[in-house]
């Protein structure tokens, strides 16, 4: 009923598009006031998380995530429990060089392999779909071919993982998997790799770990944004609503109310970890400008200086090979 009233008001407002400026301003003001109350109370709270996380789109469909070898050989599926009642699906892909050795091995062998000295990447994907998504599988294969262990997780509410996604819960999931990995990897470096929305998860997790006194060994941000408010303005599904008076403002305000911030630009200010930023110039979903603001430029300079400085051989291999590998393949 309330939605019908909103539609009627939209038509009424449009009918005054050629009226005098004073009358038009009053009608628009009335319209915005009505929309603000109706959408904030009844509409936005119900859909805001779905738009941001898009976890209901569980493509590819009709797949068995428990059998990752259908997509990537030398891979094992397992589940972790960050808290009671929550189960997260994870794939562990070993370096391709150990592919033959991994054939037929169980989870315990894969866990022990984390101490073989090959660097480890905890992969944090973006919104929608699951860890079997085609473009994600392609990247996982490339990283495996480059000599990396990769742990790819579906956050709660994604894929076959249970629970409901929120910014806080996704951050907890990432921290739990990172801690789980560090506890089993010995002295092997572990890198957080976030893609798109996952960059916000990665920097949130890295900042929390930094505050605990355990900075992440390295961070890779693929197609990052400054913060979710900034990214939402350019979100393709939102652009069609830009001409509706007050809609964008209401949408952005609702993000804050729902505590969805993902402040990459603020988080990176506190990080001491080496940071690599990857972004395509023709990215239409998250424009490269979203990853080129001052704090990200500084992070890139810091990483460049770090790579040129005297570092341990293991660390230099991790950062340099990641950058070259990804640049050559895509």
UniProtKB/TrEMBL annotation:
Residues 120-244 form the Serine aminopeptidase S33 domain. It holds the Pfam family Hydrolase_4. GO terms for biological process: monoacylglycerol catabolic process; phosphatidylserine catabolic process. InterPro entries: AB_hydrolase_fold, Hydrolase_4. Gene3D superfamilies: alpha/beta hydrolase (3.40.50.1820). One of its GO terms (molecular function) is monoacylglycerol lipase activity. GO terms for cellular component: endoplasmic reticulum membrane. This is Abhydrolase domain containing 12B. The lineage of its organism: Eukaryota, Metazoa, Chordata, Craniata, Vertebrata.
């Amino acid at each position: 009923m309330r939605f019908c009233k909103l539609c009627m008001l939209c038509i009424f407002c449009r009918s005054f598009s050629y009226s005098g400026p004073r009358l038009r301003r009053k009608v628009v003001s009335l319209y915005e006031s009505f929309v603000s109350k109706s959408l904030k109370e009844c509409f936005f709270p119900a859909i805001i998380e779905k738009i941001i996380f898009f976890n209901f789109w569980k493509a590819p469909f009709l797949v068995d995530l428990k059998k990752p070898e259908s997509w990537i050989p030398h891979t094992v599926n397992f589940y972790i429990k960050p808290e009671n009642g929550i189960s997260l699906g994870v794939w562990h892909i070993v370096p391709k060089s150990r592919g033959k050795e991994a054939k037929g091995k169980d989870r315990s062998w894969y866990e022990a392999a984390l101490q073989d000295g090959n660097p480890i990447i905890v992969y944090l994907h973006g919104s929608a779909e699951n860890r079997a998504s085609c473009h994600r599988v392609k990247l996982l294969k490339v990283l495996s071919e480059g000599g990396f262990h990769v742990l790819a997780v579906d956050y709660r509410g994604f894929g076959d993982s249970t629970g409901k996604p929120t910014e806080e819960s996704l951050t907890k999931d990432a921290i739990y998997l990172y801690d789980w990995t560090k506890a089993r990897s010995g002295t092997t470096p572990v890198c957080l790799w976030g893609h798109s929305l996952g960059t916000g998860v990665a920097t949130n997790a890295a900042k929390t770990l930094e505050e605990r006194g355990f900075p992440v060994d390295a961070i890779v941000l693929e197609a990052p944004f400054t913060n979710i408010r900034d990214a939402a303005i350019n979100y393709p599904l939102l652009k069609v609503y830009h001409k509706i008076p007050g809609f964008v403002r209401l949408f952005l305000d609702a993000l804050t109310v729902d505590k969805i911030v993902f402040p990459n630009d603020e988080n990176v200010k506190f990080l001491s970890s080496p940071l690599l930023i990857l972004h395509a110039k023709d990215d239409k979903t998250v424009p490269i400008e979203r990853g080129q603001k001052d704090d990200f430029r500084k992070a890139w300079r810091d990483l460049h200086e770090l790579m040129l400085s005297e570092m341990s051989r293991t660390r230099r291999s991790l950062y340099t090979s990641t950058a070259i590998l990804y640049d050559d393949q895509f």
